[in-house]
Amino acid sequence: MSGRVRLVLVRHGESLWNVEERYQGQADSGLTAAGREQAEMAASVLLARFGTPELVVSSDLPRAWDTAGAYLRRLDVQVKRDARLREADIGTWAGRPFTEIAQEHPEVLAALGRGEDVRRGGGETFAELRRRVWRALADAAGMTAGDATVVVFTHGGPIRVAAAAALRLPPPGHLAFAPPVNTSLTVIGYAGERQHHSVVEYNAPTAWAARAARAD
What we know:
Pfam families: His_Phos_1. The protein is an alpha/beta fold.
């Protein structure tokens, strides 16, 4: 890779568990009707703003892949699924309501609020999430010739840690970034290994009804 690669990160559309305020992690509840509409609107915005990208990469979880589908139906481009772009593994918390977890594990949530990198539900840490997501993005950028655009369909947690990694914020730097809304765009200027990257745009909505649901 030579030159700077524009990484356009897209959060998935609204899911059922977003509406029900449940943790999702690497489990999946599927897109709602509103989420499918958001995906169509995001596809139009992506095409209008960025044209045809050199590469599309997506998390393999259904809510991200189905969001990508609305975009992929409109163009002929190389696409790759990458499990490293999945949401954080939150173990036994997946599918549980936020209120139940708050009642059962207040000490864990308090620790997270203080910036401690604890394992939610026995899953992975944010540091582990950040390493795998950034490696996936670097690999995607490396598949291009540089001065290229790569569109990435993923989740709120990966977008937050990717923004922190791009700016080299020490953990838990992702806490400085609000959870992205459904089908929002975040643009990272990736300059290559050991170079200075940039966060060009963060959490730009593409759909009028996008929810600021938690990035879990």
